[in-house]
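Possible regression after last week's pipeline update?

I re-ran a chain I had predicted before the update to compare outputs. Posting the input and the new output here so someone can diff against the archived version. Not blocking, just want to make sure nothing changed silently.
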Amino acid sequence: METGAKAPKKAGTAGRRAGGGPKKKSVSRSVKAGLQFPVGRIGRYLKHGRYAKRVGSGAPVYLAAVLEYLAAELLELAGNAARDNKKAAAAAAKEPKAGTTKSPRKSPAKKAADA
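New output (post-update):
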């Protein structure tokens, strides 16, 4: 055999690994980018939405990162507002409401003295 010659391929092995071992598990682009938002789905929406004739491979990753950041900020602000509202509601529950307080009762000794 010559040094530059390749071994002949078997029929029907296109797309498989040369070693013949099990297929390697695929890793999503979201996992590669370290994101929770679906990069593939966002890319599909960009392509099917006809925003541009061509969509670069980095555009859906960047958009997913921006959307994830905005969602995290929004959730943090909502959580802070909910916590503050809970504190305010608890403080308001402890204080008596205006106009609903009953007049103080007179003790039996005062009632007898008034009569």
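Follow-up from reviewer: compared with the archived run. The radius of gyration is 35 Å. Marking as no regression found.
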